[in-house]
Protein: NmrA/HSCARG family protein
Amino acid sequence: MILVTTANGATGRPMVDYLLEDGFGVRALVRKDDARAQELREAGAEVVFGDLLDLREVRAALDGVQRAYFNYPLGEGLVEAAVMFAQVAKEQKLELIVNMSQFQSRPVARSKTTQNHWLAEQVFEWSGVPTTHLRPTAFAQWLLYISGFIRRGRYAMPFNGDSRVAPIAGRDVALTAAKILASPDEHAGQTYRLTGPVEYSHRELAAEVCRVLGKDLPFEQITVSTFLESTGLLNDTAKLKHFEAMITDQQEGLLAGVSDAAPNITGQPLVTVEEFINENRSAFGLGPDKSAG
Structure:
């Protein structure tokens, strides 16, 4: 039995499907009973409800589990949640934890969120529970965050146009984690930096998106506040500070480079920007991809 936290998220949801397809029992941890929880049940997962900051609920979620995926939403409480999760995992003698961290995880990170990811890594190491740390770069899902701008004829990002990144699709991170959970002895104790297949500057990424969409939308850098306002998160101070730090991290090249860790682990090619856009055409105001069938 494998516990998947944030089971309705960009990595958790596809991970549930991958693990079920491989014949594992999956317990999906979510916050509330809604249509998405019902979809998880229909897929074959055992759905449980809980808060990673509630020790009693963490104990219940991990009871009878052998392996687990730990992912905490961007915001306050990560280190406390990691302490609770590690303690219960130690009590339960888990075979493996796959811990979601960040590409630029380091003790001197300017972002408190990024620093907390590094601290969470240390917590799991101190616990003695076999752990694999995943450090993915920026997700391709960032393109969905600005899909509203794109539908209105703008390509607007809060990042410097010359900063470089190799965006990775959430489902590639999910498949990587699923393969690791399937082979704990092979991956325990490892830290993997995960990227997409191609590195772009943000201007180059904008040009590629526009090529696929068949639109001419010049790159436009906006403030983090403007970006968060467009997504309804203007008052989220944690995200504001983290994204501002990410801008500087990218300018300093801390998210640059391409890693082959994910395709080596999964044995499959990674999702390209073109494939990601075509998988999410409706978000960008496009009809079905007629060439796909």
The chain has a mean pLDDT of 94. DSSP finds 14 helices and eleven strands in the chain.
